[in-house]
Amino acid sequence: MAVLAVCSAVWFRSSLRRSSLAFVTAALPALLVFGCYWSAYKLAHGRYLGLNDMRGWNLYARAAPFADCRKFAAPVGTEILCEQRQPSERPGPFGYVWDLKSTPRQRFVLGPDTGKKLEVFAWRAILHQPREYVQAVLIDLAKYIDPAIAARQRYGGTPRDILSFGYRNESEKLVVDAMAKGYRGVKVRVRSQPLLVFYQNTFRIDGLIICTLLFFTVYGVFKARGPICLGIWLFGLSALALYATPVIVMSYDFRYGIPPQELLAVSGVLGMVAMRSTIKASDV
Fold first, then answer.
1. What is the pTM of this model?
2. What is the DSSP letter of 251?
3. Do residues 119 and 59 both lie within one domain?
4. Around Cβ 268, how many Cβ atoms within 10 Å?
5. Which of 19, 109, 130, 153 is 20 to 30 A from 166 (CA-CA)?
């Protein structure tokens, strides 16, 4: 929402009135959609929205894999979180939230109240270990291009294979056996799976394709002019925000990279158009 509002306001910066009107016109519909979601969550008495109330647990999960209590003083009541294991021996961020055997899950009740202490712990780790924090964020960003990076780390995010049409594992049989106790005719029917796998592998945006789209997006940011420039900034910055926000505040997960792919594809194509226009102009 911030990218949409700011880009609209900057584009109409010729006058304060037009800029303000563009900002309001762009922000209100976005806020309306977000407000409907928030209202539905409240009316349903939902728990752990995550956007705000669970930020302490999320940020702690980001910092825990590299936190070294020798470099900062752990807040009172969180000393138990100081680990003796080397960072290379620790699980990924999700291990500190979802693994019931982890120290934080055994010592703290999962919820917004306990998250306040964990958030203070996380901020101290980040402020006293900025290099380790930036390194963790950059590694997670690189995983969007190559998920194999640090793939051996447990709880380091859902890999690409799990979100594949060709993925099968032992839990499938467990689900079938459990469902068969209450229903007749429970059976897994796999139809056209090879075709779906071929389609997915052909059109999935990752690796070299992401690098190429990113290159043309950056090119367009500096070289494009006119409405194309606005489109590149709007779609490119939106993609960057969706890629970066999860890894900044918690962790990489392959599914987090699916929504921004389409936005990056649009900004990349617009960057190609900008390059073509630049080449034509230089020839003239």
1. 0.83
2. -
3. yes
4. 27
5. 153
